[in-house]
Design brief:
The complex is a heterodimer of chains A (about 200) and B (about 120). Chain A contains 10 helices and no strands. Chain A is globular and about 55 Å long. In chain B, about 65% of the residues lie in helices and about 0% in strands. Chain B folds into 3 domains: about 45 residues, no CATH class; about 30 residues; about 40 residues, no CATH class. The longest helix of chain B is centred in the middle third of the chain and has 30 residues. Chain B is elongated and about 100 Å long. With about 120 residues, chain B is mainly alpha-helical. The chains are: A mainly alpha (about 200), B mainly alpha (about 120). At the A-B interface, helix 3, helix 4, helix 7, helix 8 and helix 10 of A face helix 1, helix 2 and helix 3 of B.
Chain lengths: ~200, ~120
């Protein structure tokens, strides 16, 4: 990581700070503080990017692009507003841009076995099979719908915050979450019946 | 997914959320973080962008200032060689076409007369 090394005590103290304090430090050029923000939001950013792209490797590339973009745009961030939605908007945009550029849409080509039942997996692989089923279910949704349901049910953002992230009205977010949930629940109900 | 939840529910569905989280759980967190942090060294920070912006504006301002100074210097009257001094000797040879008359005239000079004055 770039930047001056911090004394161990100072590093621990900075790690205890909330996002707004870390952002304030990062805006002053403190790369250690920005690094802590990266650690704190990495998993969320990767999940959100994965929801858009449907591929974990592409998602990691997009999440990395987003963090680097966030660092260069940090002077435009309004510290009065929550950092998470601001960062997730950058992540969503980075993932969407990457998705547009991608010539081969591997994840859009769904395995019919995943959506139409397919061979019953081993009991040991049930958890993995559920994950596959959900990822396939997500891939059937529009990118905006995927993002809306993941940001709401997985990441815990409010409808208003998701509206800001996606640049759509709050009512549209509610609609997107509703349709996404309905489709995913249908899929999961089928999966439960097969058990 | 949860029995007590409907698709309209304004609260996050914990069961669906947990299942989706597990489905989208990324791999090696430490490796990813190290990879991103490794890239940070090559990123120009906002402070650098500000300095670059100032530098750009400074270069522009210097160019404009140089242009203005150049124009002012170039247009300043020179006692050694005025426009009239440069033109007059040639046009005064036949006494009929003076530079002041040429510049003040509403109609262009007769080409034949002008040419004759130049070759004489």
């Amino acid at each position: 990581m770039a930047g001056d090394p911090q004394p161990p005590g100072e590093d621990a103290r900075i790690r205890g700070e909330d996002a707004s304090q870390l952002v304030s430090r990062a805006q002053s050029g403190d790369r250690v503080a920005f690094g802590i923000l990266v650690e704190r939001y990495a998993a969320q950013a990767r999940r959100v990017a994965w929801a858009v792209l449907g591929d974990p490797d592409d998602a990691d590339d997009a999440a990395q692009d987003a963090f680097l973009a966030a660092l260069t745009k940090l002077d435009r961030y309004d510290p009065q507003r929550p950092f998470g939605p601001w960062l997730m908007r950058i992540v969503a945009n980075a993932a969407t841009d990457r998705r547009r550029r991608r010539t081969v849409r591997r994840t859009e080509q769904l395995d019919p076995g995943l959506t139409a039942g397919g061979p019953r997996p081993d009991a040991d692989a049930e958890r993995s099979a559920l994950g596959e089923r959900l990822r396939a279910g997500l891939a059937q949704l529009t990118p905006r719908r995927r993002l809306a349901v993941v940001l709401f049910d997985v990441e815990g953002y409010t409808h208003r915050e998701i509206g800001e992230i996606l640049g759509i009205p709050e009512g549209s977010v509610r609609s997107e979450v509703f349709h996404a949930r309905r489709r995913l629940r249908e899929l999961l109900a089928d999966w439960k019946e097969e058990r | 997914m949860s029995d007590h939840h409907t698709a309209f529910d304004a609260r996050p569905d914990a069961e669906l959320g947990a299942a989706l989280r597990a489905a989208l759980e990324p791999g090696d967190a430490a490796a990813f973080t190290a990879r991103v942090l490794g890239q940070l060294a090559g990123v120009r920070t906002p402070a650098w962008e500000v300095l670059a912006g100032w530098a750009g504006r400074g270069i522009t301002a210097a160019a404009v200032a140089a242009l203005v100074i150049g124009l002012l210097t170039g247009r300043a009257p020179s006692p050694a060689a005025s426009w009239d001094d440069v033109v007059a000797p040639t046009l005064e040879t036949d006494g009929s076409l003076r530079s002041t008359a040429l510049l003040a005239a509403e109609q262009p000079p007769e080409p034949g007369a002008l040419f004759a004055s130049l070759v004489e």
